[in-house]
Structure formats: C-alpha cells, structure tokens
C-alpha cells in the first residue's frame, strides 16, 4: 500500500474513498482532548468572579463534564451515528458488514441497499458501549491518574532528596517493621495496594500506549479497518459521511411549527420542545469556538506576549522618535558608525531610522520589530546594546539581529 494513500485515499485507484485517513482520526481524537481543558479554564475564570454559585461546580468539574458530555455524545450517536468530534470532521460509525462497503454496494439493488443501510445503523448495544468508551472510560482513567498522583506518583521512593534515614538502611527497615506491627491487617493491605499501584501504573500506561500504537500502525498500512481495539471488539468502524449514508439533515425547527402571531403560546411550547435539539446542534460550532478562545487567552496571558514583556521590563520607554519620523540624512561618528539624530522630519516609507536611506540597504530586524540597515544596526547595538528607536535593552547584542532575505 502507498503510504500517501492514507493521507488522501481518493488519490489511489484502488483506494476506498470513504475510508478516513489516519490523520483525520487523530484530528478528531485531539479535538475531544482539547475540549476539557478549555471548558475547565472558562469555568475557573467564572468561578473566581462568582464563587458563591460556581465554586462547587468547579470542584466537581470532572463529574459535571462527564454528565454534560454524556448528554452531548448520546444525542450525536442517536441522531447522526457518530460522536461529537467525529461529526465535526464529517465521520460516522457503522456496524461493519461481512463484505466491504464498495463490494456490497456494487452488487446490491435498491431494496438490498436499504437493508444494508439498516444493518449498518448503530443499535442500542453499540450506542451504549460507545457512550461508555467515550465518557465513562476517560473519566475512570482521569480518576486513576489523580489517585496515582495523590499517593506520590512520579516522586522518588526515598523522599524528595532520597534521604532514607541518617542511621542507615538497617534503622529505616526496623522503623518500618515496627510501624507495620502496630497497624491493622487492613491498613497493611491498603499500604501494599498503594505501593503496587504506584509502581505498576506507569508500566500499565506504557503498555496501553504501545497497544494503541500497534493499531495505529496497522491502520496506517491498511492491515486492519479498525483504528482502535475496542472498535474491533464491537465490530464498528469509522467511515466518511456520503450522500447515501444519511437522509437530508433534520431541520432545527419542526416543519409543523404554529404561527407565532396567531398562536404565540403554542409556538412557545413547540420551541421549548425543540430547544434541546437546537442546543446540541449549536454545540458543534460553540465548542470548537471555545477551544480557539482558550488558546487565544493562553497566548494573551503567556510570558511570550510582547504586551506582558513590556509591562515587566523596566528598561522599556517611549520611542525616542515617532514611528512616522526619522533622520533624513546619514550622520556618522569618527569611527564611521551611524549615530541617531534628533529630527522632526516626516519618515519616508521603507527608510532606515538611523541613516534615513531609502530603501533600507541590507535590511535586518531587531527583537523589538524595527527594521534598519544591517551596518547601522550592528554598529549601534554593538555599542549601546539597545534598540535605537524604543531604547529597549537587547541582551543578546548583535547576535539577536535577524537579516531579512528576499
């Protein structure tokens, strides 16, 4: 199999056009992983402003998130036959038939195609198992990870500085034996369980990831139609949505809605009955938008944001000259280095702030974002170690100069 066919299966003559590429499946899996931290951040910000109402929800975020996603995933599995993330990327789940989809559709008539579509539709068993694997299993996994961290997972056995006992190993062993003798058998079993869980959890996690990796590689090279082992156990695979898979998209509002002017009460009741469906369908746009908003806030308050850098840097001052002004003539010192000159002349476009030459000769960019001639910038930064326009200190000196090519 051509490896590039997994990127674009429609490019190959023998490829199945409805078989999703491995990267589509990874993208929808990552989308589901990004939802939880984004919603947690939004809830934490709101809880700080309204702790009276939201602090309990924030403390029980895992349970609240699991219940919310249970309702969302159940709606999409029963309505569209796919999870929320799969529906966002135009994918669906189906019960895999005995024959491949292309062969079964090629030799089928209209009635058999209808029966095939009815067979591929998810039943209650597949929906319930999918709900457990999409909502229940991640919740259990997060609780196990929290428990592993609470009992000291990832910390060294001998403490923070690995100092077991000043009297040596024999004194530490005697003290542990005396402590175990005073505790009950139940406490001893609990301590043994904690120790075994703390030591074995990383190995189990590594084995689980290797198990998934084997299925990823097999799916990538077209060795299996299932990209997850539990999908193989359910005999459910993931496919791209085609025009024959679904009827026309169900309308957000029922077609028999009463006239709001003639019977406003009936219209309000019908709208109230349709509100859950409208809400869940709107989530396909609202939740990805929340991820974008979360990433934007993460960048906005990060240390790499120039706004935060200028607030923390005491060396930052107002620009010596305006961004629309610069020296129109070149002035050099006795060593031939460019010297900044006070002026009130209007800056020409693409002019060097130091020498005023237009266009800039051999341009380079400073860390502050201003472009100058390389010779002018090199001489000024080498002598003063700061930006000639903003006077911000350049700690790296001339090594921070970046030439502009092209």
Structural class label: mainly alpha
Widest sheet: strand ordering: 4-3-5
Report the mean per-residue pLDDT as an integer. Answer: 76
**Roughly how many Å apart are the termini?**
41 Å
What proportion strand? under 5%
**Segments where pLDDT lies below 50 for 5+ residues?**
1-13, 164-169, 318-330
Oligomer: single chain
Number of helices: 13
Biggest pleated sheet = 3 strands, antiparallel
Give a written overview of the molecule.
With 406 residues, the protein is mostly helical. Among the domains are: 22-153 and 187-245, no CATH class; 344-405, 2-Layer Sandwich (Herpes Virus-1). 53% of the residues lie in helices and 4% in strands. The chain contains 13 helices and five strands. It has helices at 22-49, 51-59, 61-79, 84-88, 101-106, 110-120, 124-150, 169-182, 185-220, 229-234, 264-300, 306-312, 374-384; strands at residues 91-95, 236-240, 363-365, 371-373, 402-403. A three-stranded antiparallel beta sheet has the order 4-3-5. Strands 1-2 form a two-stranded antiparallel sheet. Helix 1 packs antiparallel against helix 2 and helix 1 packs across helix 11. The protein is extended. 16% of the residues are buried. The model is unreliable at 1-13, 164-169 and 318-330 (pLDDT under 50).
